[in-house]
Write a structure and sequence with these properties.
Layout (H helix, E strand, L loop, with lengths): L2 E11 L2 E12 L3 E5 L6 H8 L7 E6 L2 E2 L10 E4 L11 H11 L5 H11 L12 H14 L4 E5 L7 H17 L3 E5 L3 H4 L5 E6 L2 E7 H5 L2 E7 H8 L4 E7 L2 E7 L12 E4 L2 H9 L2
Parallel strand pairs: 3-8, 3-9, 6-7, 7-8
Antiparallel strand pairs: 1-2, 1-4, 4-5, 9-10, 11-13, 11-14, 12-13
């Protein structure tokens, strides 16, 4: 089976359980949102999948090859993490050259075209780049590397709004041209909500859920209108959250919307992934 399969994965750091019997599958040709609060176990899982740290129990297989015991398992996966593994004194163009050595499918021409779009100077040394351009250099490598599995851990750290928008746009275009498995782990849930196909939420080291994004969003809805009318409509229903601006109020409700009982001066809208995430991960 062409997929990343995580089975019964457990990892402890002293008395802290970072992953607790986690089971999840990342199938080929999908964009996943791996979501969780700080310390939930996201980065531990990604580092275990890529063999940067070792699990205490459980297994990870990539296309049927076992990570940790078969060297070939890691040939087709790349992880862009928050940590920098490139020599600070190395120039961007040399990082591209060495990436090609380790990943033969690395598309140098595509990488160079992205540096032009992001206005990244190829001759600059990595240590001379700002935090945002550190992230830009790393996402360009990740998008150009040519593996069938690419993991992005907080990819837009330090990027301004224009660069974040450019990254999302280029990622979708790249994915459309060459479908592959992309795993996005980010706290900017609102920004990636329209990109991800499947949502995986980790809470306290355990997989809370794995569902198609559309299916998850269909399990709740928003109602907007005059505050007093909204409050009356929401009474007794499963409230996820609410926003108020002047006399207009929006509430986020769990369940299926029943339009037959909706007052004419209220509007029903789609659920908000970030609001759902907050509710699902609240203690």
């Amino acid at each position: 089976m062409n997929a990343i399969e995580v089975r019964n994965l457990t990892k402890k750091f002293g008395s802290t359980v970072a992953l607790n019997n986690a089971n999840v599958t990342f199938a080929q040709g999908k964009i996943y949102g791996l979501l969780g609060r700080n310390g939930a176990g996201k980065t531990t899982m990604m580092n275990t999948i890529t063999n940067r740290i070792f699990a205490d129990e459980g297994t990870v297989t990539i296309d049927g090859k076992t990570v940790g015991s078969e060297d070939a398992a890691l040939e087709n996966i790349f992880m862009m993490g928050e940590k920098n593994y490139y020599p600070d004194s190395m120039k961007v163009k040399d990082i591209f050259r060495w990436s090609k050595e380790f990943y033969p499918k690395f598309d140098t021409d595509y990488a160079v075209s992205l540096t032009e779009k992001f206005k990244l100077d190829l001759s600059k040394r990595f240590k001379a780049l700002s935090t945002g351009y550190h992230s830009i250099a790393k996402v360009i490598i990740a998008m150009s590397v040519g593996t069938d599995y690419v993991i992005f851990d907080e990819p837009v750290l330090g990027m301004d709004a224009n660069h974040r928008e450019l990254f999302y746009r280029e990622l979708i275009e790249s994915y459309s041209n060459k479908p592959r498995t992309i795993i996005l782990s980010t706290h900017l849930i609102e920004e990636v909500a329209n990109l991800i196909e499947d949502v995986i939420i980790i809470k306290n080291g355990e997989i809370l859920l794995q569902k198609p994004c559309e299916e998850l969003l269909s399990e709740s809805y928003t109602v907007t209108g005059p505050a007093t009318v909204v409050d009356a409509f929401a009474e007794g229903k499963d409230l996820i959250g609410e926003d108020t601006l002047g006399g207009i109020k929006s509430v986020y409700l769990a369940g299926k919307a029943d339009k037959s009982t909706l007052p004419s001066n209220l509007e029903i809208g789609k659920a908000d992934l970030q609001k759902l995430f907050i509710r699902l991960t609240n203690e």
